[in-house]
Design a protein that fits this description.
heterodimer; A: 477 residues; 17 helices; 15 strands; 39% helix; 19% strand; elongated; B: 341 residues; six-stranded mixed sheet; 28% strand; globular
């Protein structure tokens, strides 16, 4: 609770930027923009606020749980943008251009709510909830060369921003989906495995928790029984309803769904679900694919063959992407293919990648991107527009390169002070004249303020006193 | 001397549990009558107990109107100010266990998991309406739904009996606290298999700014925490006593210590029993974890033990009060905390 006289604190997770912190971040923004200009990316600034729906369509559960969403005074649901890809695609669709490719760049703040756990130590602050994302979107390009360009541009940006050792981790969600679609699995089982693939390599339990969750959800057949989510169980229930051996509870009449809705729901399950008999095999494959570390493309191809999955086009695509990335200028030794790579955003459809700084052997994520060919149609486009992009967190980069930052000489400024109480007006007039001559001027109004002290606090400053007749006397410092 | 104000829920299971726990901890609350909303703890003069609605206690502590409060974890997470002054002092008071569960009408046979609910919310959305969720926990439910990929829903604010909301058409489903699930079942509602948003229990919270400013308040807090911690700890232990025949205290102790994991917290207490038949009997006393009692009894039997008795402990104090130590650490961090952004 904020008392009337208590000091107002900054909202947690939000930063002020001033002095050298501002300069450092501003310098990073300018460098990032320069690099993107040189590659043909045109700047765009989208609104801070968008309709919430824009970020709900395909962004996925994690991002939608991080939205700063509100109800606008006009009653609409609005959100502080949590990323810039969807707004840029929205813009491109609104423009209706058919001349591809389009190249957009941005370096703008985004907002994501991250919860501070209640049992976190009191001195642990929430991670930043606003930061600058610098990135690029390449719209209307389906070739692997475009993937190579985007990855190489992200790599070059990290290098340009003084990250000495950069590693690019490349994954491929399209490959995961293609593999899973080759098995007898329900849509739900496919979604579950695709969403959990990263946990196989991340956790020490080798996926035991994922398996337990699958059993709980009835996706994983146990003890030779079919899973509870199977066609069999829903069909069985329908048969029993039809024969009258089981009846819908009477409360159906008193809910917002009719008995017909429920039966239709069961039918959809029967039609949509398969037995998930392949679930254990698919889970095993995901466990193995996520843990591949060396010679990843060939290993993935071999693994796919072992499981009878031949001619997966995504393997070829992955190989092409890696080659294109090298051709576009990324050192081979800086590329790691990691098929267990996960992303917080659900709209990616093919290659995904993460840009990491390596500092004293430890990797720090700077951002990433990927291909999101289905996003345009999800946002209302009549046609699928192939597209891809990336964004790096400039706040993180700016912090990591704090020591390497060389302060640029600040602009020379004149501290102009009245020589006496009657000289305030002439000081203001002189300041105006000096500004017209191209000088930066910092005006003082109070004769009791020590102008030299003010100049010292400003850094690169000179001091002048103005008499009431307008004459300027420079002060030695 | 500064007093310490402790806020306790005025009704329900949390109020009763708090009364029992404090009573068992030799810090019984003395309340003139049930209509009076303030009380004292005679064993610890200086503590004023105030009875408040559970839903208000987090705010009362956050705002500095109480120094300490007993509240459900669920309520705390729902209401706390993330950058407020409250902090958790006792993370589990070992009562008030419950869970925030997502429940649908039991006639919805096709909806068994959050995945089903996600599909249903999309279906509703395509028909131009939202899935309506009745709950008193909008903050927690929203986050849980979003994490599970459910984005199209709306919250229905309701203060009365949530369980009736789907039946009267006020909401489609509910998210409510349930301890046994009986109330849900009796109202033709069913919890989804993966529909538990949070597991909860009673906790004690405190206002860090108030506590850090006053030695008196800290002294009173320590007196309270010492009792509660010793009481809670004692529940996990039992005292096992038996008579064992042997040559000397040292021999008996050696035999018992041959299995160190069954020899008690620090080791056995052995003392001579003087009998009329001049046999050398010794009384052995071991304080052991509740789950190890039978193993300790068997161990003593193997050593010829007889007349084994097992008794509860009332309090078990260790060399220091862990809860108070943790509180002081957190208060130190709190005063140093500067947002690095």
């Amino acid at each position: 609770m904020i008392g009337r006289n208590s000091k107002i604190r900054r909202a947690p997770g939000f930063a002020d930027r001033a002095g050298v912190d501002f300069e450092r971040l501003d310098s990073a923004i300018r460098s990032a923009r320069d690099l993107l200009y040189s590659r043909g990316y045109q700047p765009i600034e989208t609104p801070l606020i968008e309709q919430t729906e824009l970020f709900l369509r395909r962004s996925g559960g994690l991002l939608s749980s991080q939205l700063f969403d509100f109800q606008a005074p006009d009653g609409g649901d609005i959100t502080l943008r949590p990323e810039l890809t969807a707004p840029v695609i929205r813009h491109a669709l609104e423009q209706g251009s058919t001349v591809y490719p389009l190249r957009y760049q941005y370096a703008s703040p985004i907002f994501r709510y991250t919860e501070r756990p209640y049992d976190a130590p009191p001195n642990s602050m929430p991670s930043k909830r606003q930061y600058i994302q610098a990135g690029a979107e390449l719209i209307g390009a389906s070739q692997a060369a475009a993937d190579g360009e985007i990855i190489a541009t992200a790599y070059a940006m990290a290098k340009r921003l003084d990250i000495k050792d950069v590693v690019i981790r490349i994954g491929h969600v399209g490959l995961i989906w293609e593999m899973l679609n080759s098995f007898k699995l329900s849509e739900r089982a496919i979604l579950f495995l695709a969403n959990h693939v990263a946990e196989f390599s991340r956790n020490d339990d080798h996926g035991a928790a994922v398996e337990a969750e699958a059993i709980k959800l009835g996706l994983m057949p146990t003890n030779g029984q079919q899973s509870v989510e199977t066609q069999a169980s829903a069909a069985h229930l329908l048969t029993r309803l039809a024969t009258g051996s089981v009846q819908l509870p009477r409360s159906t009449e008193q809910t917002s769904r009719t008995a017909e809705d429920v039966v239709a729901g069961l039918r959809r399950k029967v039609e949509g679900d398969v037995s998930n008999s392949d679930f254990p095999v698919a889970l095993e494959l995901m466990r193995k694919i996520a843990c591949i570390r060396s010679d990843a493309v060939s290993s993935a191809a071999r693994l796919a063959n072992e499981y009878g999955l031949n001619e997966l086009s995504s393997i070829d695509d992955l190989r092409d992407v890696v080659q294109a990335t090298e051709s576009a200028g990324v050192n081979n030794v800086d590329i790691e293919v990691d098929l267990g790579l996960a992303t917080a955003i659900a709209y990616y459809s093919g290659m995904i990648f993460e840009v990491c700084a390596v500092i004293e052997g430890e990797q720090f994520s700077l951002g990433g991107g990927g291909r999101y060919d289905g996003l345009a149609s999800a946002l209302g486009s009549d046609e699928d527009v192939p597209a891809l992009g990336f964004a790096l967190n400039l706040d993180t980069i700016s912090e990591l390169t704090r020591d390497a930052y060389v302060e640029e000489p600040s602009r020379r400024i004149i501290v102009l002070a009245p020589a006496g109480a009657q000289a305030v007006d002439s000081t203001v007039n002189s300041a105006s004249e000096l500004r017209d001559q191209g000088h930066d001027v910092f005006t003082l109004f109070d004769i009791n303020v020590d102008a030299r002290e003010v100049a010292a606090s400003l850094g690169n400053a000179s001091v002048a006193l103005v008499d009431d007749d307008g004459s300027i006397n420079w002060v030695k410092q | 001397m500064d007093g310490l104000r402790l806020a306790i829920p005025s009704t329900g299971a949390l109020e009763q549990g708090a009364g029992r726990l404090l009573g068992d901890s030799d810090a019984a609350v003395s309340r003139v009558n049930s209509r009076r909303y303030t009380a004292t703890i005679p064993a610890i003069p200086g503590i004023e107990v105030i009875y408040q609605r559970q839903s208000d206690i987090t705010t009362i502590v956050d705002s500095g109107n109480a120094d300490l409060g007993i509240v459900g974890l669920d309520r705390y997470l729902e209401s706390r100010l993330e950058d407020g002054d409250s902090l958790v002092v006792v993370p589990d008071l070992e009562y008030g266990n419950s869970r925030l569960a997502i429940a649908v009408p039991d006639s919805w046979l096709d909806i068994t998991s959050m995945y089903d609910l996600s599909d249903l919310s999309l279906e509703f959305h395509e028909r131009g309406r939202d899935l309506r969720v009745a709950t008193k926990y909008p903050r927690l439910v929203k986050r849980f739904f979003n994490h599970r990929g459910i984005n199209y829903f709306s919250m229905v604010a309701i203060n009365g009996a949530l369980e009736a909301a789907p039946r009267i058409g006020y909401a489609d489903i509910i998210a409510d606290i349930s301890d046994t699930g009986n109330t849900l079942r009796e109202n033709n509602l069913r919890t989804l298999v993966d529909g538990v948003a949070i597991e909860s229990q009673a906790i004690m919270i405190g206002n860090a700014a108030l506590l850090a400013q006053s030695e008196d308040k800290l002294t009173l807090t320590r007196r309270l925490l010492e009792r509660i911690e010793a009481r809670l700890r004692s529940r996990s232990y039992r005292r096992v006593t038996a008579n064992v025949k042997g040559d000397s205290e040292g021999d008996i102790a050696d035999m018992i210590l041959a299995s160190p994991d069954l020899a008690g917290m620090a080791g056995p207490t052995v003392s001579r029993v003087y009998t009329s038949d001049n046999n050398r009997w010794f009384a052995v006393q071991i304080v052991t974890k509740k789950n190890d009692v039978l193993r300790v009894v068997d161990h003593l039997r193997r050593l010829g033990g007889t007349g084994t008795a097992v008794s509860d402990l009332q309090f078990l104090y260790q060399s220091e009060c862990t809860l108070y130590k943790k509180l002081i650490e957190n208060l130190n961090h709190f005063s140093e905390a500067v947002d690095p952004c």
